[in-house]
Description:
The protein has 10 helices and 14 strands. With 323 residues, the chain is an alpha+beta fold.
Amino acid sequence: MKSGKFEDSFLTEHIFNKITHKRSEVLQGSGTGIDSAVLDLEGDLLVVTTDPVTAAAANMGRLCVHICCNDIAAEGAEPVAIFVTMLVPLDADVEDIQTVIEDLHAACAETNIQLAGGHTEKTEAVRRIILSATAIGRKTEKNRQAVKPGDVLIMTKGAAYEGSSIIVSDFREKISSIAEESQIAFLKSLLEQISVLPESRIAVKCGAKRMHDITEGGVLGAAWEISRAAGCNVEVWCDEIFIHPETALICDSLGLDPLRLISSGSLLIACAAEDAAKTIQKLDEAGIRARQIGVFTTEKSSYVQKGIKQILDEPAEDEIYKL
């Protein structure tokens, strides 16, 4: 395999011809000689995000789409189009490339987003396939309510969904003697719950003031980030955060803190205290686990774990990079 762009025949066969899920807003998408996509959003707000996939090797196509869509969802918007850059090492197998592309298309169909463009290149600058994507969403709501002391912090699902899936997929040798096959299969299956689009839609209808997708830095890192974005400090109740026993098992064995482990698939929701019960009830009715895990406060941001209060600082390097 030589450096540089992929041949048009390869792009046509493996990418262009496989883009079957389309949106009416995308007037012009991917194609040879086309440098940009054209979208018609009919006056709605444009929401844009970009993310690379660097912490995972397996399932990267799926992760790429869902991570970007989760950012769009956290803004209370609907995903419309995604643009993916794929850098491929010279010794890559065509089968590996096809797997990534198939994952991309499958995830696009799941999230109702169109793969509208991007870039593919063979290069000696990378040792494995690297993806980076930009996603575009739309929303009509222009104003955001201010978060204030007394508002509550709700978390959906549980801690370390993405981190658990990455560990059992990419670091199988480290946990093969720790976890049983059924436990490994369960942790892999958490990837199927990585989208936060369903809960974001419910939260918006229930009056959410602000939302944040939990990614690198885990729950505690995301709590610090949402408090910074909201301009209001927060107290996090760690003992209220749900952790699957299987996740706790592998994290304990590997010396990892599940509350600081990458957790795409879970959403933080800031809402007024009077809206909390309704929000949790609606999420529960939709089959989405949700708990209040903290409260916004005038005091310095902190977290309480086993009765001990500690200062909540800016997140350090994610636990996944210890492996």
